[in-house]
């Protein structure tokens, strides 16, 4: 009686596996820490928006105005991104070859520089 009949053909499921996890459009996870008060305020804003939490976080992260504090690291990174974008633009032959990520980082740099109210941007316009 100690042996129980088990089918040899039965597959044993080891751990939970997310269905279609590898084929998801949004396959990356982003985490950050908040205080309880910040979490409460965020949850209220999400409820008022009528969006899913994921959609709200993505939209507010990508499309909201960001206030930055300039320091040497910020300017060095901006300079590096401008050089990379310039090199990319010099290499493209067709509009279809444009790297969207590089252009988006360049757009953000332009927004940051506009916020600094520099004379350089006024001369460019």
UniProtKB/TrEMBL annotation:
Residue ranges, compositional bias (Basic residues): 1-17
Region of interest (Disordered), residue spans: 1-22
Record InterPro entries: NikA-like (IPR053842)
Name the record gives this protein: Mobilization protein
Naturally occurring in which organism (per UniProt): Anaerosacchariphilus polymeriproducens
């Amino acid at each position: 009686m100690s042996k129980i009949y088990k089918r040899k053909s039965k597959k044993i499921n080891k751990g939970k596996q997310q269905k279609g996890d590898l084929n998801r459009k949004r396959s990356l996870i982003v985490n950050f820490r908040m205080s309880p008060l910040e979490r409460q305020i965020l949850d209220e804003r999400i409820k008022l928006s009528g969006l899913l939490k994921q959609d709200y976080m993505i939209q507010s992260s990508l499309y909201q105005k960001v206030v930055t504090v300039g320091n040497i690291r910020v300017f060095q990174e901006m300079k590096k991104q401008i050089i990379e974008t310039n090199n990319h633009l010099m290499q493209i032959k067709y509009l279809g070859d444009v790297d969207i990520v590089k252009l988006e980082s360049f757009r953000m740099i332009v927004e940051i520089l506009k916020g600094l109210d520099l004379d350089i941007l006024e001369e460019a316009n």
